[in-house]
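A quick aside before the break. I want you to see a complete sequence-to-structure record at least once, exactly as it would be stored in a machine-readable document. Don't worry about memorizing anything.
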Amino acid sequence: MTASDIVGRLHHELGVVGLASIAVLASAVLFLVVMLKPLEARNADLERQLALNTRENATTDAALLRASTPSAKMAAFYHFLASGRQTTDWLDRLYAVGKDAGVELQSAEYRMQDTGTRIDRYEVRVPLRGNYAQIRTFLNNALVEIPVLSLDEVRFKREHASDAQVEAEVHLTFHLVKSVTP
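That is the input. The structure line, written in tokens, reads:
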């Protein structure tokens, strides 16, 4: 019996709808084996990596983990911002990030804003020179490496559209927890 004989016999016994059903089932099995199984395996790998990273980055302070009251949440927030570093340490880190990114940090304007709360705002306006990618790298790395830093404003200026160098004025703010003196 040849393959055409088998198909002819199935067509006679099952009809067109039956053959179409078998084709759909075969396609579903093929899709499951070829597409879904590898994706499920990749998903399981990613979930294991996520669980591992979450465990590594999780805080071990049980009081912070159970922070359910507003006052406990505020305490956790202040604990996050309180790094024990001085303003000059953060500025040194900012200039190091700029140097690593190849950005030319020119003279900056500094201003401490007393907010009347436990957090002071140390504002920095700094003009930068570099290409767009360098400036973007600098800003990304600064925000990642300095957890008390926020980016408030960026202005780009280019003399000519063909210029590779971009001038930018960046307004950054360090959010610093006031040291409590008894």
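Two observations worth writing down. The mean pLDDT is 81. Strands lie at 104-105, 109-113, 119-130, 149-157, 166-177. We'll return to this after the break.
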